[in-house]
Amino acid sequence: MSTTPPKQPSQGAASPSEPITTTRERILEAGAAIVHAKGFNNTGLKEVLDASGVPKGSFYFYFKNKEAFGLELIDHHLAFFAANPGALLMDRDKPPLERLGNFIDWFREFYRDKGFCLGCPVGNLIQEMSDLSPPFREKLGKAMEGLNRGMAQVLAEARERGDLGPDLDSESTARFIIWAWQGALMFMKLVNTEEPLITLKQTIFSRLLAHK
Length: 212
Prior knowledge:
Blueprint: H1 20-38, H2 45-52, H3 59-62, H4 66-83, H5 85-89, H6 96-112, H7 121-129, H8 134-161, H9 170-191, H10 195-208
Helix pairs in contact: 1-2, 1-4, 4-8, 6-8, 6-10, 7-8, 8-9, 9-10
């Protein structure tokens, strides 16, 4: 048996009374809010650590570097998404098109409390980081593909129920809805009103998904 003592965590790491996951989540929670408001490149690590109340030495115990931290922020945002608007979209207790409407309405309510500012945190990272970091581009692309699969599943369910025409291509239609939804959230930031999201929902249901 080896007598080499176990490697000790870096200075400022979690104490035995505070699980690693708790400290990591505190950093991610604080960082997510700041990056959402200011952007990834405009956010300093000191600002994140000050907001989370975590000593500076702790950061590199949990994250290899700032880019690794940013990649975990994507997972953090996706977990919030899955538990909130994503849960509405995939709620099998309601008809599929009602779920799609509830999904869009969730964003109207969520951003109303924020003055229709900030935009989608994942969409913001797509715009800011896709050209600058291949790991960001890859992870963000996979995130959007996952959303596309979920949206396509909802549309396929609606088609099977007869709520949509039998010739509707659920994959390409889902992709278009996601692109339009991200565009609506971007323009929401510009005009600071819910009008882009209202127009998005009206156009999707009155034109794109109108069952003739």
